[in-house]
Amino acid sequence: MGADVRYAATAMAALGYVITALGTCIVLLSDDFGVPPEQLAWLPATFGFGLLAMAPAGPVLLRDGPRRALAGGSFAIAAGATLLAFAWIPAMAVVGGLLLGAGGAAFALVTPAMLAGARAAVQLTKVNAAASGASVLAPAAIGGLNATGVVNGRLALLLVVPPLLHLAATARPAAPEPRPQRIDRPAAGAAARRWGAVVLAVSVEFCFSIWAVTRLAAAGLTPGTAAVLGTMFPFGMALGRLAGPPLIGRIPVAQVAAAVTAAGALVVVVAGNAAAITVGLLVAGVGVAILYPVTLAGLIATPRLNATHAASLGALASGTAIIAAPAALARLAEVVDLRLAFLLTLPLLAALLLLRYIDQVRGDNRCPEMGKETESRGGQRAVEGEEVVRSGPGFTTLE
């Protein structure tokens, strides 16, 4: 594993940990502040707002290379985690959550810029596997520490501070290769389709991430037990992202992943007991795991799309999805029950596959799991196998 992949994996693992911890901490914060959890439920959305706010700044942040964004994101997340760990008034928690969002946005922007070459989807999958694995640890660490009754479980957030400070102090990501001045622009239709595919992939993922525990609790479990079993979704994602790289280029990964995710979603909808729901969440996690890396690699591989602009578009897509999709599922649950609201993920998956199919038949697709060699408009090729994402001039890839 190259140095830049290690830097990206450390950054995304820390981010995965604190984002999952933020949702878990809502219960503890509500007790500490004496307010209903509903009044703090918007805190996880600060990550999405941070992505939206920072996305346009991508070209500026990455102008001189990825180090500045990597260090800034590390300091922001370390500071946000510290504020949340020690917050004794709501204002501290609010500032901490916003810092997590800003730092997360910096990491989302810098990760594509740090990973370059033909192995975009494979590298992205490995990096996201680190994030998924760390996200599984967060609820257990917070719950276990809180169960001791000696200290507040939120102090488990401090576990990410030392590695982040070390990353900020020691990381020396490779400088981007000089790019010639270019006047041509990417095809708007191809860029829009691939951006939309990223939005849809992240939307499906966060529908499960935000509402999995609530679905389990609705089946009659206590909040603590529901939180523990809810980790099966990020655990499934970790498994999927570990198993995914060898499959890229060998099978139609997006189609298979969407089918597995849909199967898991249907189990979550129809299951009448917590055990079956937990299995459905695990299956859905395995399926959805590969969708974000593959769709993001497809966006990055858009012919003539500048690397920093691709990173900004990726952050914008993630922020849009994280804010909109869980809220849409919640609104649907007000009309039908939460169980049926999970059916929202099925049309999202269908729309994702439709966008990728249109991209393929139009002849400008260079997405990572394409099975046969196809010519792009710029003359580059997508070749069967793991090393299928070819970077355009001056382009760097992610994960």
Write up what this structure looks like.
With 399 residues, the protein is mostly helical. The protein has 16 helices and 2 strands. A two-stranded antiparallel sheet has the order 1-2. β1 and β2 form a beta hairpin. The C terminus is likely disordered.
* Tally of DSSP helical segments: 16
Q: Tell me, briefly, the overall form.
A: globular
Tell how many strands the DSSP assignment holds.
Answer: 2
- Overall average residue pLDDT: 78
Helix content: 55-70%
Domains, number: 1
Spatial strand arrangement across the major sheet: 1-2
Largest sheet, in brief, is: 2 strands, antiparallel
Radius of gyration: 20 Å
**Uncertain regions spanning at least 5 consecutive residues:** 365-399
Which superfamily, in CATH terms, is the homologous superfamily? MFS general substrate transporter like domains
The CATH architecture would be Up-down Bundle
Region (Disordered): 366-399
Keywords: Membrane, Transmembrane, Transmembrane helix
Organism: Actinoplanes regularis
Transmembrane segments: 7-29, 41-62, 69-89, 95-115, 220-239, 251-271, 277-301, 313-332, 338-358
Keywords, separated by commas or semicolons:
68% helix; transmembrane helix; mainly alpha; 16 helices; two-stranded antiparallel ribbon; 399 residues; globular; 2 strands; Growth Hormone, Chain: A; membrane; MFS_trans_sf; transmembrane; disordered C terminus
